[in-house]
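Retro notes, item 3 of 5
We never archived the inputs for the INI complex last cycle. Fixing that now. Sequence and ligand:
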Amino acid sequence: MNIIEGNFSCGNYKFAIVLSRFNELIGQKLLKGALGCLKIAGCPDKNIDVIKVPGAFEISLAAAKLAELKKYNALICLGAVIRGETPHFKYVSNAVSSGISQISLKYNIPIAFGVITTNNIEQALERSAEKVKLRLEYSGKKLGNKGWDAALTAIEMANLITKI
Ligand code: INI
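Structure as it came back at the time:
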C-alpha cells in the first residue's frame, strides 16, 4: 500500500494570493496570516504575488486568469463576506465559493479558500486574529486566522499535486 500525502515544505513553489479589498481591515489581517505562514514554511517573498480585487465577487475572475498562466503552484483566495441586511451576502458568497472550486478543477491547480463568511464583524475578527493574540487567547478555541489556514492548505496541496 502507498500512502501519498503532501507535506509543508515550500520548495521553490510560487504562490499567488488573491485578496478582496472589501472589508479591508479583515482582509489585511487574513493577508498577514497567510504571509506569516508562507514565511515560516520557507517561501521567499519573491515567490509570492498579491493581487487585489474590489470585492469577493471579483476573486474568481482574477483566480481564473492566474490559473491560466500556469505559473503558480497554488492560489490562495482571501476575503471577508459579512452578512448585511440584504440577500447580497448570499449571492456574493455562493458566487465566490463555486467560482473558486470550478477554476481549481478546470485548471488542475490547488486553490485554498480563505474567504470567510460570517454573520457579523465580531465573528470575522475571531477568524482573522493576529498570531500573538492567538497564542494568548487560543485556549478559548474561538480565535484563529483563516488566512494562515488557507496558506497551510495551499502549501500541502501544492506539495501533494507534485507527488501524485
Ligand atoms: N464583497 C465582499 O468581499 N464582502 C462583502 O461582505 C460584500 N458585501 O456584503 O456586499 C461584498 N460585496 C461586493 C461584491 O463582492 C462586488 O465587489 C460588487 O458586487 C461589485 O461586483
